[in-house]
Design goal:
Number of domains: 2
CATH superfamily of the largest domain: FAD/NAD(P)-binding domain
Strand content: 15-25%
Radius of gyration: 23 Å
Distance between the termini: 41 Å
CATH architecture of the largest domain: 3-Layer(bba) Sandwich
Length: about 500
């Protein structure tokens, strides 16, 4: 398609809240509707980012037969983004000599731990129901997702100080009704993105790092996009979709003519934003520590198996989340001699101790590991070093671009009222953007953003025969707002 054609008909819904144009399959999942307009050659689409948003967008684009999408993902083993898991059969990287004998005894999730189905996304609710029916996800047993807090924490600071002295903490269940159902991937959270890809006709290129400096180039001569990695051309594409964020997405688009898109991809890294939301997309950072303990350890004693699978830590500033992976994934192995746990740090802690995430220095690994384990001991009021001295093995990872603490909220109506488009699209340059930061900091937000962008691209190509005077760039007018759930929990996409 030429740029002049793209200038027509690319903002079908720019001046109104997003409206679904999908049909529904027998399984309940919607797909973009087919068109009766004249046949045209399918357009190639490069989707950069193989997380939930990118895989979902590619799936719905491919279902329409108007597009031939290819997803490029940096994951060495498989796609997933925040929904990543380690499996016992995983082979270590060539430069990693560690075997992790004990950690390999169980599946473990080192990022997202919980999936919920937000009521404001009915399409995603239907998808969650389908995944549950197919056995891809399972419900956490009622009452096993909890808050860990000091006793009487609502009775003021003085009472909390007394609790500290007396050694009191409480485990308060939060998934206690049908209205608060929470899920995990039956074979790890990584099984969710694999299910999306399996149900998709889109191609997937794994372990591909599109260079941030010159990996994406817009060719004015033919209005197409050239992608490169490691000095090799990945292909020439009619369109691209940016389905990730952080410094790489910022740099990838910085030298392209899609300036309005790039302005919103510029990023800050901080644990919080001002109440008004800030001026740029802001991502926090989180440390993820997975460690193995012998069975009948102190955690097993203070957090009984039938009452705790995972929980939000509210009484220790270094931590935000604690999860027992073996209780989720080895319920059929009661005689297992090793327990695997994961603890996620708070964003302020990660900022204070931030280091190059690809190559964490040994001294940083040792120090951060020690501090996080001390935080677990403090939160649960167990004797110092009781847990630390029992650790058989541990693995530390810095999740550098973790969770968006603000979300872009578009203004699209004639009266500048707020709407939830959930994506960006530049029809002049054939580029779209999707991700949870454009809708809601959650797995559901990422899935819904990818779906909405795909449906918009389908609707735009079907409407391209009709001249229009609407703008070619969609979603770029608006403001960032603080994400309440991310600010409250510190790990918004997990709750």
């Amino acid at each position: 398609m030429t740029g002049s054609k793209q200038a027509r008909g690319r903002a079908l819904q720019a001046a109104k809240p997003f409206a679904s144009i999908s049909s529904t399959t027998s399984s309940g999942t919607s797909v973009p509707s087919s068109s009766s307009s004249p046949y045209r050659q399918p357009e190639s689409v490069a989707v950069i980012g193989g997380g939930i948003a990118g895989l979902t967008c590619a799936k719905f684009l491919a279902a329409n037969n108007r597009f031939v999408p290819t997803v490029f993902d940096t994951g060495r083993l498989r796609p997933g983004g925040r929904c990543s898991s380690r499996w016992p059969t995983d082979k270590p990287a060539d430069d990693d000599s560690r075997s992790y004998k004990y950690l390999k005894s169980s599946i473990f999730d080192h990022a997202a731990q919980i999936l919920v189905a937000p009521r404001q996304f009915p399409e995603f609710q239907r998808q969650v129901e389908e995944w549950e029916t197919e056995g891809i996800i399972s419900k956490y047993p009622e009452g096993t997702v909890c808050n860990i807090a000091d006793k009487n924490y609502q009775r003021g600071k003085q009472q909390q100080q007394n609790d500290k002295k007396s050694g009191g903490f409480a485990v308060r269940p939060i998934n206690t009704s049908k209205k608060n159902v929470m899920y995990y991937g039956t074979e790890g959270m990584g099984s969710i993105p694999l299910a999306i890809q399996k149900d998709s006709r889109a191609s997937l290129e794994q372990d591909v790092w599109v260079s941030p400096s010159n990996g994406v180039r817009y060719q004015n001569s033919n209005n197409k996009w050239k992608l490169q990695a490691n000095g090799q051309t990945l292909g020439i594409f009619d369109r691209i979709v940016i389905a990730h964020n952080g410094k790489c997405a910022d740099r990838i688009m910085s030298k392209t003519p899609a300036k309005k898109i790039h302005n919103l991809l510029r990023v800050n890294f901080a644990p919080r934003v001002p109440p008004q939301g800030g001026k740029r997309m802001t991502l926090n950072s989180i440390y993820s520590l997975t460690f193995a303990l012998p069975k009948n350890n102190m955690l097993d004693q203070v957090l009984p198996n039938n009452k705790f699978y995972c929980g939000f830590v509210q009484n220790e500033p270094t931590l935000r989340f604690l999860s027992c992976q073996t209780r989720k994934y080895q319920q059929d192995k009661p005689d297992e001699e090793v327990q695997v746990w994961t603890v996620l740090s708070s964003a302020p802690f990660a900022k204070k101790h931030k280091a190059p995430q690809e190559f964490l220095p040994n001294d940083v690994v040792e120090n951060v590991t020690q501090l996080l384990l001390q935080g677990v001991e403090k939160s649960l009021y167990v004797e110092t070093n009781t847990i630390i001295d029992s650790v058989l093995e541990s693995r530390l990872q810095l999740w550098g671009a973790a969770v968006p603490v603000n979300v872009w909220e578009q203004q699209g109506n004639a009266d500048n009222s707020k709407c939830s488009t959930g994506f960006l699209h530049d029809g002049d340059h054939n580029v779209g953007v999707c991700g949870d930061w454009l809708l809601e900091a959650s797995i559901g937000g990422a899935w819904e953003s990818g779906r909405r962008l795909a449906e918009y691209m389908v609707s735009a190509i079907e409407e391209d025969q009709q001249p229009t005077t609407t703008a070619a760039v969609v979603g770029v007018k608006g403001a960032f707002r603080m994400s309440q759930q991310a600010m409250k929990a510190g790990i918004g996409s997990l709750t």
